[in-house]
Write a structure and sequence with these properties.
The complex is a heterodimer. Chain A is α/β, with parallel strands linked by helices. Chain A has 9 helices and 10 strands. In chain A, α4 crosses α5 (about 140-155). By secondary structure, chain B is mostly helical. The chains are: A alpha/beta, B mainly alpha.
Chain lengths: ~250, ~210
Amino acid sequence: MSELTLHNVSFHYGDGSLALQSIEMNLKSGERIALVGPNGAGKTSLLMAIAGLIKYSGDVLIDGVRLSDKSKHEIRKKMSFVFQNPDEMLFMPTVMEDVCFGLDSLGLSAEAANAAARAALSAVSLSDFEGRSAHHLSYGERRRVTLATVLARQSTLTLFDEPTRELDPFGRRQFIDLFQGMAGTMILATHDLELVLETCPRMILLDAGRIITQGDPRTILADAALMKAHRLEVPHSLSTHPHGHY
Amino acid sequence: MNHGFLEDHAFLNSPVHRLSPKSKLSAVFLMLTLILILTHLFQPALSIQIMFALAGILAVFTFLSRVPLRFLLLRSSLVLPFSGFVILVNSLSGTMDPFQILLVLTRSILSVFTILLLISTTPFQQILTQLSRWKFPGLLVMVIAFMYRYFFVLAKEIKSLEKGVGMRSSKLGGWQRMKTYANILGMLLIRSYERSERIHQAMEMRGFSEESL
């Protein structure tokens, strides 16, 4: 499990607009944290910065090692990133090849990679899909394959970007069950506030690229004024208002 | 449009489907080479006769494969506008006689028909696996795989953009329609570029580097 520290991380888009501003953040090993905020708050940019996929200023340290062009290949061996859109993660001819993709870079032999992929596909209940092509699968199934790609890597730090987006209730429940069973440090960027309540003991509220507050989701998400000020809603399970969320 | 557009019949059970991808790909390469070099080896009249003989062979395999002939002919005919353009350009410069026009047409249709018959009788992933076994450059196989994988994703995006246009303006005049489609194309290029960046990022996250090829 990995420990993560962000110090004074800022990022500007190409047009000069600010996406992240002086982010300070610390995650203990094995911690699960949710990033919550309105559209354009900087959630995806923050995940991208942690993964070293964008050029930011400031420092990202994973297990005490500063993320840089030189160290990123080694650091990424510990890390997985589940993108918003499964079509951007599944590009190989078959599901099996997709799950095996990149496992050789972790030092796994072909046999070990196949075994890891099979175990991961079994965990997401897609054992019979090895030879299928991702483009023949339903959206929910493709989502589960992306989870298998992460499980096979046995990462110690996993980043999830809107993992329950466009999933039906059953698919969402499947994701939650899998997520609960996964090991390692995890960051979940999401608009699904009920998911946050169910899976993360800590959350960060982001807006306009800045951290507004962080702490226990039950306290933060129950604050109707805070939610409204940042274009969010008190989740239904915390709402005391009989006819609405405010 | 989905992958069924090409792969609808790839999972049938026929003598041609049961042939190994290796033999089918070898036969296709041989057929395409023949189609391409015929005119350099023989006189135009004889070339056309041989071309018809090749068409006969393809017809036999099509019959055995149980892939509907209409399906293959319709999709093969999509090449006609391109052949027509080549014929038009060369005719304008006065370098084509009727024999050569017939040759260009039969050559292009037969080539496309051959490839379509292969795709309709062999799942695409098996074709890619065979190319890799033959030590085709990894980059080339990956580009083909990506083209196939994302062509239909793009086609789906065009469809949804078209629907969006249709819902908001059902009666577009010629010029307005062209302008709108130019915008759709521009939007698609931007989206494709952004998507390709994200795919590359996803690959990088899983340890991909140029050396992996």
